Structure formats: C-alpha cells, structure tokens
Amino acid sequence: MNCHHGHGKGKATLVLTHIFGGILMAVAISLLFGFFVMVLWNQLMPDIFGLKTITYWQGAGLVILSRLLFGTAGHPKHGHKQKCTHRNVTDQDPCVSHTAEGEPQV
C-alpha cells in the first residue's frame, strides 16, 4: 500500500505559506523603515538644512525610492552565486612588502 498519497499537496502548501509569509514580512519591514525615515528626517533635516517635515507616506516613498536607486544594499540577489577566485599560495600581494624568506613584513 502507498503511504505517500497526497504528500505533494502538503509540500506545495508549505511553499506557498513561506512565500506569503515572506511577502508579509517584507511589507511590514518596509512600513517600519518608512516610520524610521520619517522620524529621522523630521528630527534632523529641518534644523540642519531648513527643509520641511515629511509625512509617513513620504518617508515610505523615500525608502522605496532608495531601494530602486541603490538596489539591494550590497547583498547578492538570491539565486546568483558569486564567483570565487583563489590565489595561489606562491602569489604575493604587491601591496605587502615581503622579507627575503617570502614572509609578509608587518
């Protein structure tokens, strides 16, 4: 008798739950960042630069705009592996001076 009947449905539900949870967390974090941007802007920018205060939604818009302009803040995108290049042990860094024995000099 086959005990694995319907097993694929449970896995699909789990995947959809993770996707939905991830989207929900991203929205919640974005809303939280919007609040922090608004507070920091309203505390600093009017006094330092004489700019007007902003609303919550303007702060959230600044978060979205900065994400679009600057990308993922230095983190590699998922699914793209970084290529690693390894130097041979015998290669010497041209910026580091070495002793006659080949040891790096501090």
From TrEMBL:
<feature type="compositionally biased region" description="Basic residues">
    <location>
        <begin position="76"/>
        <end position="86"/>
    </location>
</feature>
<keyword id="KW-0472">Membrane</keyword>
<protein>
    <submittedName>
        <fullName>Uncharacterized protein</fullName>
    </submittedName>
</protein>
<feature type="transmembrane region" description="Helical">
    <location>
        <begin position="12"/>
        <end position="42"/>
    </location>
</feature>
<keyword id="KW-1133">Transmembrane helix</keyword>
<feature type="region of interest" description="Disordered">
    <location>
        <begin position="76"/>
        <end position="106"/>
    </location>
</feature>
<keyword id="KW-0812">Transmembrane</keyword>
<feature type="transmembrane region" description="Helical">
    <location>
        <begin position="54"/>
        <end position="73"/>
    </location>
</feature>
